[in-house]
Specification:
The chain is α+β, with helices and mostly antiparallel strands. Helices cover 43% and strands 13% of the residues. It has helices at 2-33, 51-90, 120-134, 176-180, and strands spanning 107-109, 116-117, 142-144, 149-150, 160-165, 171-174, 200-202, 209-214. The strands form 2 sheets. Strands 2-6-5-8-3 form a 5-stranded antiparallel β-sheet. A 3-stranded mixed β-sheet has the order 1-7-4, with no helix packed on it. It is elongated, with a radius of gyration of 46 Å.
Length: 215
């Protein structure tokens, strides 16, 4: 009788152990499906979220903002340049005090009165270099210009001297100070210097050609 009760007790204990093990397995499986986060309010299983995504999104927003700012800056700069150019082209230049008038196309004709005499020793150097040039040689620091009409910005008196070779084969100097005597208002340091691109200086009436010699 005692043996029978012992086996009944052992069987009941075994069933209880198996039942408890099954419950633990189910609980563990459910937790593994959602990483054990069922207790967190607002948690959505299957939806991933990371700081990396936040950083990437923020970076894209900043990049977009930077591009828009850069574009706006470029448009503003372009607009300012156009306004300055437009403003310069609309200014009416006053030639009332000029010694030389400008024709309708913006050309001022420079006469002999605004060219300088060239000293004998300089003439000798110029003749020698011109002979070399005429013989297809390349004299150092000396060249013939391919034009007799110049914009103000074509001249660089700090680096070069400019000489007019006349039809009578004489040399005349072209200097900044002598040109300023014309009182043309668009020349260096004059009132309408910002409008200089609209005008030019022609030496055609006096010069067959113009030569440039480095200082």
């Amino acid at each position: 009788m005692r043996v029978s009760k012992f086996w009944d007790f052992l069987l009941i204990a075994l069933v209880a152990v198996v039942f408890a093990a099954c419950n633990n397995t189910v609980s563990s499986t459910d937790a593994s499906k959602n990483d054990g986060l069922d207790f967190i309010p607002g948690f959505e299983p299957g939806k991933t979220h990371s700081k990396a995504n936040d950083v990437s999104s923020s970076s894209q927003d900043q990049s977009s903002g930077s591009d828009e700012s850069s574009s706006a800056s470029e448009e503003s700069s372009s607009s300012d340049g156009e306004e300055e150019e437009s403003s310069s082209s609309e200014v009416e230049v006053d030639f009332s005090e000029s010694e030389i008038q400008v024709d309708g196309s913006g050309v001022a004709v420079i006469t002999d009165a605004y060219l300088t005499e060239v000293e004998e020793d300089v003439r000798s150097i110029l003749n020698s270099k011109k002979d070399e040039l005429d013989n297809n040689e390349e004299p150092e620091g000396f060249s013939e210009s391919n034009k007799v009409e110049f914009a103000v910005d074509d001249f660089n008196f700090d680096a070069n001297n400019y000489y007019c070779f006349t039809e009578s084969e004489e040399w005349k100097g072209i200097t900044r100070d002598k040109l300023l005597e014309t009182k043309l208002p668009f020349l260096w340091d004059m009132d309408y210097y910002d409008c200089r691109d609209r005008f030019s200086l022609s030496f055609e009436s006096e010069c067959v050609s113009i030569y440039v010699m480095a200082n």
